[in-house]
Amino acid sequence: MDKSAFEERKTISAPMHASLRHDSAHKHVAGSADYIDDMPEPEGTLHAALGMSDRAHAEIVSMDLSAVRTAPGVVWVMTGADVPGHNDISPTGRHDEPVLAEGRVEFHGQPVFAVIAESREAARKAARLAKIEYRDLPHWTEVTDTLENGATLVTDPLTLSRGDADAALAASPRTISGEMRIGGQDHFYLEGHIALAIPGEDDDVTVWSSTQHPSEVQHMVGHALGVPSNAVTVQVRRMGGGFGGKETQSNQFAAIAAIAAKKLKRAVKFRPDRDEDMTTTGKRHDFLVAYETGFDEEGRIQAVKANYAARCGFSSDLSGPVTDRALFHADNAYFYPNVRLTSQPLKTNTVSNTAFRGFGGPQGMVGGERIIEEIAYALGKDPLEIRKANFYGEPGSDRVLTPYHQPVEDNIVARIVDELDHSSDYKARRRAIIDFNAKSRVIRKGIALTPVKFGISFTATWYNQAGALVHVYQDGSIHLNHGGTEMGQGLFTKVAQVLADAFQVDIATVKITATTTAKVPNTSATAASSGSDLNGMAAFDAARQIKERLVAFAAEKWGVSPDDVAFVPHHVRIGETLVPFADFIKQAYMARVQLSAAGFYKTPKIHWDRAKGMGSPFYYFAYGAAVSEVSIDTLTGEYQVDRVDILHDVGRSLNPAIDKGQVEGAFVQGMGWLTTEELWWDDKGRLRTHAPSTYKIPLASDRPKIFNVRLAEWSENAEPTIGRSKAVGEPPFMLAISVLEALSMAVASVADYRHCPRLDAPATPERVLMAVERLRGM
Amino acid sequence: MASPIHLELSRPQLLISSVVTSVVTGTAAEAATAQSPGAEMPQNSKVSMIVNDERHEIEVDNRTSLLDALREHLRLTGTKKGCDHGQCGACTVMVEGRRINSCLTLAVMHQGDEITTIEGLGEPGNLHPMQAAFVKHDGFQCGYCTPGQICSAVAVLEEIKAGIPSHVTSDITAAAPLTTTEIRERMSGNICRCGAYSNIMDAIVEVAGTRA
User: Fold this and answer.
1) Is pTM beyond 0.90 here?
2) For chain B, which residues score pLDDT lower than 50?
3) CATH code of B140's domain
4) Which residues does chain B have within 8 Å of residue A667's beta carbon, measured at their own beta carbons?
5) Distance CA A305, CA A338 (A)
6) SS3 B106
7) What is the pLDDT of residues A3-14, one digit of tens each?
């Protein structure tokens, strides 16, 4: 058996921590990676389109769909009354979000009926023929309007409190209060929503859905059809981007396609047009933050009070946990000795806002950083000085408790910031910029260094579990399936690396397969940056089980101690004998060893008592920092991002190439959110930025001119995560706050940095110009 | 059959005036049936195109975009539909060597044209240098914009070589320089929501460098 030892290869192609390319790289560049719209359609596939409300808030007096029904190609017109189970897809069980509106519409563009036709064009054309009579009701689309008109909430608010904020404010040498508006953001995943439902026998249905949360689509389709979850199979191989926009928003399209497929006994495909996708699906929450802070002459914070009011839309969706997470990050990396934070998840007559990378955290953090900026301008100091004065302390000090009473025990923010401060030459550049601004009449520059501390884990504790299914076949090839979904973040590659590492085989030995509720049940959304943490560990656990059985088998057959059995590159070493992996597996099969395992993982340590606002909701924190330098034109408000330096912590990276891509991409997306991406509703409540023609996301030409991105290679997760890595999806998104603050500094220069410019987000050129004009008058 | 005024219409005008002009403009497509005044307009036309070096004859509704013709009639699904109105670039293909948003042009306008899609550039195992560079530099994340990015990138280098100026070209009478500023500007019609722009640029610059 050991005759092959001479051909032993000492390494495997892609262990953990290697910069392996994305598993679908060769297919992506050749156009042969199939998304759902690329799959061959079953014969006789029908297509769906939405009939949408053109009122923001109204009672439906009458609905005449006869012209829709008789339009060419139309097979069926479906209304809320046709939903066989529950006309409800509210993800948190509040029963406030219908599949199709009945009796009343609550936002402009709300789906009222669906047309099923022989072609997409026929369905879309017919959908325009409805005659719906409405009785208008008062509507509020803006946070401010809602606050002035009863401030109805869509879900319970949260309060986080520690110490006595009011008393500390009263006793503080200096205080400041202010308000900040923070805009929302459309996901603009390049692949829009899509569902393909294929009816099966009895009550079975299979749905291919572009979703980050197949288990929830399964539950919602079952709920709407009135069938148990075991009748519904949901599958997804890959998404063309998700960013949180496919966590709950896939439910509606999947439910309609599945209901129609079962009724008509034909496959139904539902791919909304881009404008309809943007109109009918939720976005990042806009916030109005009202803050008050007390501090001393050194800029050390004594107290913070803040209220985070959010535009949630007409239903709760995920607004409860999103607004909670805003509060969880209002402290960012700073210790607040006395603090009181409140959320106000407001009901508005707009599409129901949802998850988006950071999940409220970015908005919370922008508010917290505004407070730092206010203090710096009030004291005439560099904001970085204020930041350093307020960082959480070393573990064991009296400055480690968060507003939710979890101590920060893995704090590396000071080291990250110091390293970046030096490597980016921040201080000298800041001095040079102040000199430049003193001489430059029109063009002004700004620079800012902002840190990030982001809590990792779902705050819904039960979500922090995952499963994986691993088969080793007789020929030694390995089949990998887990509950996570691939949306470009490289999750499948990372988890395959975990398995390749565990069995010490080449990555090509591991076949990555589409996520399906039939293989791994009760999964959580691929969200909260948790994909690799959870699914990597679940796959690791499956490998562990199979390996334990293999070790027992080898020890018995070869008569060695289990300690003398080891998985080495491409082989199993049993005592002095080296057996090629595939040969070994064949022998194990012949000896009737079970070569398949279901792995499971649940995050340890975490707990959270929402009513008390106390607990340890996060397993650990991820850290990072960025320095951004910008130039603005004070005559037009136009600007450009000249240089960005980033140092970001991903623990011991599972795949540095993928992680660096995540950091860069997150930064660019965050920069878009805070600069050019502006959502705008008109007085009728109609979203007027419903296409890329009117909604501007960053382009190749918007990328910082100089963009230096490094991972903190010395970092290791203090907790025993998979390979001591850290989550990477969301934390670097908030590095872009440095762009907003650099723009702010450039604006502040026109009034000699005496006033905090209070630039709202997004800082569009118009807002920059208005801030310049406002400051010139001060 | 076609009046002179129709023949003078430019392609953008054709798009705006849609059905009638695209049918009667004999140079753009051969109408399926002859028509006389007052007769019902033919809805469909036969179009012959050379796609990826292969001649295809298809009959399409006159309003079918080139994108839908490629995806739904020829089953070439490598070309993606991102926004369907010419703003995202995911549907970029090359027509007669020049890039075009295939969602913004009608299939019937491409009678006899040579069209190259991502499938025609290369395939796994035999990749075009630009495709190989995108793999090497991780020039994508979710991959949905990638076919359009690559088709655009290949055409951009040809445009610069041909001396076609862009918005950032300072001297439009001289040859456009092969700079990253030029490439970034020219690639700005292709949105990447994952923000993989750094790696996309690295891939293009590498190919541009080896060809220069």
Assistant:
1) yes
2) 1-35, 211-212
3) 1.10.150.120
4) 195
5) 8
6) strand
7) 444 455 789 988
DSSP A513-578: --EETTTS-SPPPS-TT-HIIIIIHHHHHHHHHHHHHHHHHHHHHHT--GGGEEEETTEEEETTEE
Q: What CATH number is given to the structural domain containing A124?
A: 3.90.1170.50
Give the CATH number of the domain where residue A622 resides.
3.30.365.10
Dig out the tokens for A353 from the structure.
């806002």
Sign for the CA dihedral angle at A679, A685, A686, A688 comes to: negative
**Cis peptide bond prior to A762, omega within 30° of 0:** yes
Q: Are residues B150 and B92 in the same domain?
A: no
Which residues in chain B have their CB less than 8 angstroms from residue A22's CB?
138, 140-141, 143
Identify the domain containing residue B205 by its residue range: 123-212
In this structure, what CATH number is given to the domain that contains residue B74? 3.10.20.30
H or E segment at A772? Answer: helix A765-776
Residue B25: how many other CB atoms lie within 10 Å:
20
Q: Which residue, among B104, B140, B144, B206, would best test binding to A if mutated, counting the most A CBs under 10 Å from its CB? A: B144
B93 and B177 inside one domain: no
Active site residue A374: no
Residues B139 and B196 in one domain: yes
Do A221 and A358 fall within a single domain? no
Interface with chain B: mutation pick from A28, A187, A189, A662, highest number of B CBs within 10 Å? A28
Q: Is A161 contained in some domain?
A: no
User: Are A442 and A482 in a shared domain?
Assistant: no
Q: How far is CA A468 from CA A507, A509, A542, in A?
A: 17, 17, 7
Indicate whether A443 and A300 sit together in one domain: yes
Cα A671-A676-A678 angle, rounded to 5 deg:
115
B195 with A666: Cβ contact below 8 A: yes
Give residue A489's domain range: 3-29+465-602
Domain for residue A96, yes or no?
yes
- Would you call A241 and B193 a contact, using CB atoms and an 8 Å cutoff? yes
**CA dist., res. B44 & res. B59, Å (int):** 6
Domain count for chain A, please give it: 3
Q: Which of B121, B155, B178 is the last residue of a domain?
A: B121
Domain match, B164 and B112 both: no
What pLDDT digit, counting tens, does each position of A8-58 carry?
A: 578 998 899 999 999 999 999 999 999 999 999 999 999 999 999 999 999
Domain termination site, one of B121, B151, B185: B121
Chain B CB contacts of A692 under 8 Å are: 83, 87-88, 191
Closest by CA to A221, choosing from A391, A112, A85, is: A85
Question: Is residue B37 situated within a structural domain?
Answer: no
CA–CA gap between residue A213 and residue A556 (Å, rounded): 43
Structure tokens at A625: 């920092």
* Cβ-based neighbours of B154, under 8 Å, separated by 6 or more: B94, B121, B128, B130
Q: Do B197 and A668 touch (CB under 8 A)?
A: yes
Query: CA dist B207 to A21, A254, B133, Å?
Result: 19, 42, 7
**DSSP label at A269?**
E
Does A391 share its domain with A503?
no
Per DSSP, B72 falls in state: I
The partner residues of A516 in beta bridges, in order of sequence, read A235
Region of B117 (left: φ > 0; alpha: ψ -120 to 50; beta: rest) is: beta
Residue A303 CA, distance from chain mean position: 30
- Mark yes or no for CB contact B142/A239 under 8 Å: yes
Apex CA A227: angle with CA A224 and CA A228, to 5°? 115
ipTM of the complex: 0.96
Place of tokens 């389709």: A221
Instruction: Round to whole Å and give the CA distance between B87 and B65.
Output: 15
B104-139 confidence digits (pLDDT tens): 999 999 999 999 999 999 988 899 999 999 999 999
